[in-house]
Amino acid sequence: MQTLLRGGRVIDPGTDLDTVADVLVRDGVVAAVGSDLAAPEGTSVVDVTGLVVGPGFVDLHSHVHTIAGQRLQAMDGVTTALDLEAGLMPIARAYADAAQEGRPLHYGFSASWGTARAQAHLGIDPDARLDSALALLGEPGWQRTSSPAELTQWLSLLERDLADGALGIGILMGYAPRTDPREFVAVAELAARANAPTYTHVRELVEADPTTPIDGSEEIVRAAAETGAAMHHCHVNSTSRQHVDRVLGLLDRSRAEGSRITVETYPYGAGSTAVGAYFLAPERLPAWGIGPSSIVLIETGERVADESRLREVRASDPGAECLVEFLDEREPADRELLHRALAYPDAIVASDAMPVLWGDGIIDSREWPLPPGGSTHPRTSGTFAKSLRLMVRESGVWTWAEAFRRCSYLPARVLDDTAPTARRKGHLGVGADADIVVLDPDRISDAATYFDSTRPSVGVRELLVGGVPVVRDGELLTDAYPGKPLRGEPG
C-alpha cells in the first residue's frame, strides 16, 4: 500500500523540518519526504494543500482499551494509545486480548504495581481487565505497607511482566499513599536494573496532607536521584492543583542535576477516577479544597449531593467512574495554572483517557457514530485538539513544531530504551513508522464537554496508522483496525 500526501506543511520534530513538502508512505513506513515527489503507479494521492502534516500523537496515558474509545482518540489525532500509569496484569494476557479484539490504534501497557500488590496481599487472580482494576481501587487490603514476603512476591510479578513485554512499571501511589516510601525505592531499583521507566500517580503533596509519609513529587525526585531510574510524573496538573508552580520548580532543579524525570499534563480542570479512590473519602476532600458536590458520577451524570451520598456510592460501587473538579476553568487564576503546566519546558501532553460507558453497562461499541447515551471524560475525546487550540491557535505559546514535539516526539522518546521500536515513532524521517496526522490548522479544536463528552474533535483530516488510513477526509473509517502492539524488550 502506497500513499502520497501532496503539498502540505510538513513538520518533523525529529529533524526540525518545517516546510511545504510531499510525504510518500510505502509498506507502513515513511519512504520519502521532499518536493514534487513522483507518485508510483497504484499510489493513492491525497491533496493536503493548506494542511499541517506531522507525526501522529503518542499518548502515554490512556486507559482506553476499547474500540469506541480508541476511535474518539483517533479523531483527536492519536496514533498510539498506551496505558502506562496504571497498566494491566498479567501483561501477556493484556496484549493477547487486544490483538484478538483488534485495535484502530497502536497499543501497549506497563506492568501494574497496584494489581501486583493486590495479588500478593489478597490472593486475587488478575484478568488484565480495566474494570477489574477499577474495582480494586476502593479495596483497602492492597493499600497497606507490604510484609517482606509480600514485597518479594509482587516485585517478582513486576519483574515477570517486564520480561513479558511490559513498557515499564505503572505505579498508582496516590491510591495507596500511606505505604512505606522504601517500597517505592525498591520499585525504582527494579526499574533501573531493567532499564525500564516508571510512570507514577504520586501520593499527596505535603500542603494537602502534612501527615503524608513523604511529599508525592519529592518522592519521585529522591528515588530518581538515588537509583538512576527513568521516572515519569503523571498528570502533574491534577496531582499538584494549586501547588503546581512549587512542584514544577522542584522537577526543574532535579532535571538540571541530571535526574531522568519526565512530566505530563492535560488541559482540563477536572480529573476522572473511580469513586472508591482513597483520596475521595469524605474526610480527605478538604485537603483538595473541594467537597462531595465537586464529584459527578460519569455513567448517570449525578452530582453527589452530600457526604452521606458519597459514602453510599463508595460502598455500593467503588469502581464507578466519576469526574473530580479540582480547578475551576471559569476562573482566570485557575486557567492560568493549567496554562503554566502546559507551557512548562518539555511537558508532554497525555490524556488520561477513560473508557466510554453506557447506562446499560456496555463499555464498548463498534458503531460509529457512537450510540447515544455514552459518557466518558472529555479528555478521551479532546485532549490533544484542546491543547493545540489553547497553546497554538489562541495563545501562540507553542509553534506548530513545538506542538508536535510535545504531542509526538517527546512521548516516544520516553520509550526509546525499553522499546527500541519506539525510535521509529514521533518523527517523519525516512524509515519512520507511517503514523501520521494531517490537520486543519484553522479548525483543529476539541468539541467534547464534561456533559457531552463523546463529541469527536474537529480538524483532523487524515490519520494513518502504520500507513493504513483510519481517518480519511475528516471521516472515520470503521473497517480500519491496523493497530499493532508496542512491547518492551528486557534490558
TrEMBL record:
Protein name: Amidohydrolase family protein
Gene3D superfamilies listed in its UniProt record: Metal-dependent hydrolases (3.20.20.140), Urease, subunit C, domain 1 (2.30.40.10)
Taxonomic superkingdom: Bacteria
NCBIfam families noted in UniProt: PRK09061.1
Domain Amidohydrolase: 391-471
InterPro entries associated with the record: Amidohydro_3 (IPR013108), Metal-dep_hydrolase_composite (IPR011059), Metal_Hydrolase (IPR032466), Metallo-dep_Hydrolases_sf (IPR050378)
UniProt organism field: Solicola gregarius
Organism taxonomic ancestry: Bacteria, Bacillati, Actinomycetota, Actinomycetes, Propionibacteriales
GO molecular function: hydrolase activity, acting on carbon-nitrogen (but not peptide) bonds
Sequence intervals crossing the membrane: none
Family matches, as PANTHER family: COLLAPSIN RESPONSE MEDIATOR PROTEIN, HYDRANTOINASE/DIHYDROPYRIMIDINASE FAMILY MEMBER
Alphabetical list of SUPFAM superfamilies matching this protein: Composite domain of metallo-dependent hydrolases, Metallo-dependent hydrolases
